[in-house]
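Late entry, evening session. Most of the bench is empty. Finally got around to the prediction I had been postponing all week. Sequence below, unchanged from the version circulated by S.P.
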Amino acid sequence: MAISNNTRQSLIPNYLYSSSSMNNMLIGKLSTNSNSKVFESAPAVEKRNFVIQAPSEPPFGKIEMYSPSFYAACTAGGILSCGLTHMTVTPLDLVKCNMQIDPVKYKSISSGFGVLLKEQGVRGFFRGWVPTLLGYSAQGACKFGFYEFFKKYYSDIAGPEYAAKYKTLIYLAGSASAEVIADVALCPMEAVKVRVQTQPGFARGLGDGLPKFVRSEGALGLYKGLVPLWGRQIPYTMMKFASFETIVEMLYKYAIPTPKNECSKPFQLGVSFAGGYVAGVLCAIVSHPADNLVSFLNNAKGASVGDAVKKLGLWGLFTRGLPLRIVMIGTLTGAQWGIYDAFKVFVGLPTTGGAPPAAIEAAKD
């Protein structure tokens, strides 16, 4: 007696069952003798008919949320996102810094590029790329790694109810705490970078620029710009993380009809870039006066904040080089969040955005 299609389906697990392969497959015959085998024979079947696509495994195994491996992955993602993006926009940063230091010579973005091309050639646009790469890689490691740590830490202190209620404060406090540490790592390389980029002939790069800077300013001179750097980077990072988290949450809540966990990973990464770009524009506006101060102080030996304000003026402090910085920081921040979340997806972690950790845990309960 031949087995019907319905009988065959019941004998085979659903995830193995395929109508296209079963139509060509003979399972066997049932024997009337109780001592005989249920299946007499089964013809050879091509192996490809039984291939089951297994879920892809993360390259480093499953990473538990908020474990040491989780924070290590976030740190590595921060290195890639900040180091690579800042190095890529070195030409923009070079023109911006020179416009801030010498607005008479570098009157606009286009003329600034023209002056640099005429005086230093194409290679001149990447002057200072090594301290940029090293400095912002160190900063990115601390910025993203410690942000994830402090976000969880402050959420646990607040508890699920208050963490959900005051989530924006959690984002602000976590990002500010992380940036205090990150700027200590960045400051020496930032000082050398600005000096190399804004004083032609000072040094070719990090190798000769760092020893020359230390001989001129002393080792502590590398941290002369730390307070203005905090003044620039802490508001910048608070805006960068808090606005990004809020923008992404609002996009999924109001603009995207599909829940986040049902969206594809490429789509989620697109949302991360869009949210990061908008956050970057806000960051540039908030932190620009301090950015002008950092460039001025690192370029002029013995200069003070008062000297900078006197020379640049309040209007110049807020506006000089701002359009270029908006373009640069918007693109930079969007790319950073895209790279950071892409790395998290690569190692099997969810993309950034949503409620603080304590609130997420409460929702699970």
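Two things to note before I forget:
Confidence is low (pLDDT under 50) at residues 1-55.
Residues 80 and 270 are 18 Å apart (CA to CA).
Will write this up properly tomorrow.
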